[in-house]
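Example 3.2
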Amino acid sequence: MLRPDGDAGDALTARCEVEVDGVVVSMVHSLQTGTVALQLEDGQIRRLLWDRPDPSVEGWCDPSGCSVSLPAPCTQTALCSIGGQEHLLGLTDRSHLYAGDTQLASNISSFAICNNFLLVTTHAHSCRCLRSTGSVAAAALASGDGQNDRDLRRWREDLESSLFVPQYTRVILQGVVLSSSARRCGCSFNGTKTLFYHLNFIYDHNPKVFLENIQTFISELNSTNHINLFLTELKEEDTTSSMYPRPDGSTLLPQTGGPKKVDVVCDALRRTMETLDQNKYFLSILTSHVKKTVPELEIALQKVHELRVKPPESPGSVSAEEALKYLLSSLTSIDLYDHSLGTYDFDLVLMVAEKSQKCDPKEYLPFLNMLKSLEQNYQRYTIDKHLKRYRKALQHLSKCGDGCFPEALQLVKEQKLFAEALRLYPADSPHYRALSCAYAEHLVEGRQAEQAGLLLWRCGELTSALQAFVSCSSWRNAICVAQQIPLPPEHLALLARDLAVKLSEQRRHAEAAVLLDQYAKDCEEAILALITGACWEEALRLIYTHNRQDITETNLKPALLDAVGAQNAFLDAQVATFTRHRSRLAAVREHKAKARLDMLDEEGLDCPDAELYSEASSVMTTSKYSHSNSRISSRSSKNRRKAERKKLSLKEGSPMEDRALMYALSELVTTVDKMREEVSDLLRALVLFQYHRQAEALQLAFQEALQMMEAAVPEVWPEGPQSGQTPLTGPNSTANSIMASFQQQQQQQQPPASQQDADFLVPPKMRNCIKWKLSILT
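Structure, written as tokens:
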């Protein structure tokens, strides 16, 4: 090691000598860490400990303590940090780039280190800039892809990097100056333009810092054109995620919710420019209005009109003609004309029309003259209707007096603005009543008769409200309206009978009985309705309330015996169907398991068809139906479930027979489980009238049905391997059977492919908490 000679300033003297076991072919020093690495002719790497009182040499080792050597002698070496560890990079004469003993790439012509960046030139005529601090650099070099497209520069000749220009974003390649993206943090406007960076990066790099220094940003630009360019390139896209990935370990979180990025930047720039010099930055202020996600064209046009009415006196200010010409260059003239018309300012409209080349004076002048002749509110209504701003048009038309109400009502019907119209008129006005009637007609057409009845009842149209309530069987509201009219008693009784018939058809027997008993004054018909609906206790209450015990013998007891017979027959049918489906499901599963094992035995474990057939129980022909699923994605959930169930067929041999059987079994369990309350009520009535034998038989049959179905649940919906499959291990197991069992277990652990799969793969829940049994029958 040498050092300057103290006596002779231009001479060097030896400080010390260190012996190295081998021939040193190159030496490299890191200015950041102070490390010195030696490369020997056989590829070994040595670390020179030169900053100690007694310098020495030691081997180069990785974090695990293993020695590291270069696979081949390298003509160029450099030290850099990759993934937080210091590595010696070496480039051989065969274009192989190594990091220690690991090859990074095989097409590198030269490389250089600049701070935390690695620049390489390749034989593909490209220069790539990669972060050397992260582990992605090695992966990017190995894959042949840059970290992103912005890290890649191409040319036509084979060039090699010579040196970097310190503190600047350029690298010299054999005399050619190439802009590099090594210094990403240089977020100046001119820098981003020169390097072809997206201008959104100026904000996206650090939004908080940008907004805090927005005045400095404007002052340093000091150019309306540059500010306009920045505003016009604004997008909601976050360039630090899509184009310029952040460094590893970055903690800057993306903004979620709240105002949109474009609106935030436009508002912040506009407020600052208005504070600094509104006249100087007038065009940029207009751009900030136009560029927002919902363009504020009316505000921009109004500012141009104010500029025309009161021109600024300061020199260099923008004139109204120049501002309007700028807006016309940014937007289509038709759009600008329509928006100017929406300001109701005819001077502004004429100014825009005169500057536009697409507006014909023969068309817009007669139209404007016609508008000027109208009353102000009707004028604005005509303009808004022309611009298809129907809500605003309705607001203006509602102020035009009673004579324009028919036109307003027609507009409301055409554009379905009923809710908006009701808010514009007093609730006690005839206009409000007419709008309510029109709204009710619209609701009735949309099968919302109950809401229509509420509107009509509210505005005093009782007869129409009664008709609406009756049509939708809203009997409580109908009775209230009928008594408010009021209807004569005989008419009220007739209305109650009509409503009772409708409710009985809808199996709402208890409600029908209330109407017959309280309003039609026909207790016998009310009791019969309750008996028909199996409301035994309520029927008994009315029997004793009206002293009609005769109905007990003539109607109630026979109905109880009929109900017992019907319940027993229904239970027998459900149990028989459940047993048949359960047996068939076991047979289908056994057949498919046997077929899968036969294929494995014939073709061997490596047969690709074996894996496909292992899913035959559910997926053999799924592709046949998968295309139909895509066509029903836009349907309602009810129709979608109906279309999905069409795929399930109980026909023997169908591709999805096992799933169809599971679905049918689930429906049977749910149906029988829902009978708990109905059977409990029937048992109580049977016991009351001494029908012990029939009650005991029904309770026993229902209990056995529930127990049988509950016991079958683990078999039909197994949590683990299916009961019919071959065990994983055992004296009778073969290699093929073990592999088949393992594959089937893997399939069962996979999540369901659709909501329909989840519906029948999950066992139905039985409501064992409901107490339905009678202890006096056991």
